[in-house]
Amino acid sequence: MKAVVRWADDAMFVGESGSGHCVVMDGPEEHGGRNVGIRPMEMILIGMGGCASFDVVSILKKSRQQVSGCEAQLNAQRADAVPAVFTAIKIHFVISGQNLKDKQVKRAVQLSAEKYCSASIMLGKGGVDISHSYEIKELVE
């Protein structure tokens, strides 16, 4: 996997993934930015949420669950001192669909957390306290 990050100006950088997709990162005004892009640490948090969500949806589909929506709500705490690393992350999944089995959703979240989500496992091994929870929203036809 490869990526390139180029300085644009002030506190703005453009990241390009190996697959050719770009994202703008910028700092807040008090740090010389213009607040026109996502913060780098927000990117890490969103990346973890995307990685975990991909796993959960994939596992639910493979177990023949009628999943139609997955929202990962992330709440992170950071250290007060530099480096302001993540110290704790709570990820709450809101899974919607029809006839979803609680046991299957619980298993999908657990497998993502313990076996498949590279991002959350990496952060957890780095000392971040990560917790997972979920709720099911039943959709009626």
Question: How does this model look, in words?
Answer:
With 141 residues, this protein is an alpha+beta fold. The chain has two domains: 1-38, N-terminal domain of TfIIb; 40-138, GMP Synthetase, Chain A, domain 3. 33% of the residues lie in helices and 38% in strands. The chain has three helices and six strands; from the N terminus they run βββαββααβ. It has a three-stranded antiparallel beta sheet with strand order 1-2-3, with no helix packed on it. β4 (66-78) and β5 form a beta hairpin. The radius of gyration is 17 Å and the shape is elongated. The mean pLDDT is 96.
Outline of the structure:
With 141 residues, the protein is an alpha+beta fold.
Set out the fold topology.
Blueprint: E1 3-9, E2 12-17, E3 22-25, H1 40-62, E4 66-78, E5 86-98, H2 102-116, H3 118-125, E6 129-138
Parallel strand pairs: 5-6
Antiparallel strand pairs: 1-2, 2-3, 4-5
Q: Helix and strand string, N-terminal first?
A: EEEHEEHHE
CATH architecture type of the largest domain: 2-Layer Sandwich
Sequence of strands across the biggest β-sheet: 1-2-3
Number of strands: 6
- What is the terminal-to-terminal distance? 42 Å
Tell me the CATH superfamily of the largest domain.
K homology (KH) domain
CATH topology of the largest domain: GMP Synthetase, Chain A, domain 3
Indicate the mean pLDDT.
Answer: 96
As a percent range, the share of helical residues equals 25-40%
- The structure class reads alpha+beta
Number of domains: 2
Classify the beta-strand content into a percent band.
35-45%
